[in-house]
Amino acid sequence: MIESLFVLSSTGKVIIEKHWHELIPRPVVDYFNEQVSKAMAASEDISREDVLPIIPSPKYQLINVYRDGLTYLSPVTKEVDPMMVFEFLHRILDIMQEYFGTVSETTIKENFVTVYQLLEEMMDDGYPLTTEPNALKEIVPAPNILDKVISTMGAPTSVSTKKMPHGMSNLPWRKAGVKYATNEIYFDIIEEIDAIVDSTGKAVSCEAHGTIQANCRLSGMPDLTLSLVNPRLVDDCSFHPSVRFNKWESDKVLSFVPPDGHFQLMSYRVNLPSQQNLPVQVKPSINIGTNGAKFDITVCLRNTEGKSLEDVVLILPLHKSTTNLTAHCNVGQYMFDPVGKVLRWDIGKIVPRERAPVISGSFAFGSANSEAAANAGYNIGLEFMIKQHSLSGLMLEGMKLFNESKPFKLRRITKAGRYQIRA
């Protein structure tokens, strides 16, 4: 049972408060903010994203999700499956993103009425009820420009809860009577690579977290069967409720009646072997002295199937006593944050068979902490994206619609998740 929800701003202030079963007093939010502050103050390496997702308190278990600067906090008192709470919190985020595009403190404040109506429809006395976007949009209309103008002027808005229409499908995730002039469906395989790489370029640990995103524009009530290349590479996976799990277990195919519009069909994890050739290699050289250090970092393409790296950013956190950093790069531009002590190098795009990006320079240590700075380790973070590339090798092989082959459009994207190089 999920009793309450608090949506907190980046400063810990309550933006939204909703109670479904039992009124939980606000001091629990103060306790949560104190525990988050203590956890972040205990170590310089801990950011808000690294705070424990479940924090115990004298009376409650504080289950929380942090995304885009906002915290979604659900205190629970009774026996409850925590994964159900996490799934529901993420479903709230997905629904609000479906309605408003981007979810921020400003967005929520501009759409208070719609947000509270959605929370009311999604939960019944502490138990999830309606969580599919198609069903919710038939009950709670998405706000339009006129509603926002009227709300800004202080007048009542036209947003109101509608009764469930008689033409609603028996499947909660799909509307009835959908018609398109051109029947088509799009799939995106998006993989994020989490890796720890040593200074020689060898992967210490590496795994891919992927999702199959779909955009369905098919008329009627289509029944699809999707086959994959190398489906047994997948270690852990979860599916949209429309997927017939028994069919996946027996034949490793995805059989489902898709929702209309955008949805996430599947998420998965693939453990990549330690000898896996990563798409990019970072060659760091940091020579540390007593009063400072000199550094030279090169970024090279290695295994991209001839594809370019885009949106490449290299991040080098330095010791808190670092001062007077000077650098030179042959590609892109760099910026040093003197407060956060972070060097950020925006490389942009790396094209195969062109010169490798290089940044070199030096920085000094403050006299008070020079010895600690000299003994500190350095970990480089890397962000990048590769279009039409899948590092795990998972691919879509074919699709059948009512036992007939149907063409589909596929895009593949590989991104860096937590990609860390030890210098």
TrEMBL record:
<dbReference type="InterPro" id="IPR022775">
    <property type="entry name" value="AP_mu_sigma_su"/>
</dbReference>
<keyword id="KW-0472">Membrane</keyword>
<feature type="domain" description="MHD">
    <location>
        <begin position="182"/>
        <end position="422"/>
    </location>
</feature>
<keyword id="KW-0653">Protein transport</keyword>
<comment type="similarity">
    <text>Belongs to the adaptor complexes medium subunit family.</text>
</comment>
<dbReference type="Pfam" id="PF00928">
    <property type="entry name" value="Adap_comp_sub"/>
</dbReference>
<dbReference type="GO" id="GO:0012505">
    <property type="term" value="C:endomembrane system"/>
</dbReference>
<dbReference type="GO" id="GO:0016192">
    <property type="term" value="P:vesicle-mediated transport"/>
</dbReference>
<dbReference type="InterPro" id="IPR050431">
    <property type="entry name" value="Adaptor_comp_med_subunit"/>
</dbReference>
<dbReference type="InterPro" id="IPR036168">
    <property type="entry name" value="AP2_Mu_C_sf"/>
</dbReference>
<dbReference type="GO" id="GO:0030131">
    <property type="term" value="C:clathrin adaptor complex"/>
</dbReference>
<keyword id="KW-0813">Transport</keyword>
<dbReference type="GO" id="GO:0006886">
    <property type="term" value="P:intracellular protein transport"/>
</dbReference>
<dbReference type="Pfam" id="PF01217">
    <property type="entry name" value="Clat_adaptor_s"/>
</dbReference>
<dbReference type="InterPro" id="IPR028565">
    <property type="entry name" value="MHD"/>
</dbReference>
<dbReference type="InterPro" id="IPR001392">
    <property type="entry name" value="Clathrin_mu"/>
</dbReference>
<dbReference type="InterPro" id="IPR011012">
    <property type="entry name" value="Longin-like_dom_sf"/>
</dbReference>
<protein>
    <submittedName>
        <fullName>AP-3 complex subunit MU-2</fullName>
    </submittedName>
</protein>
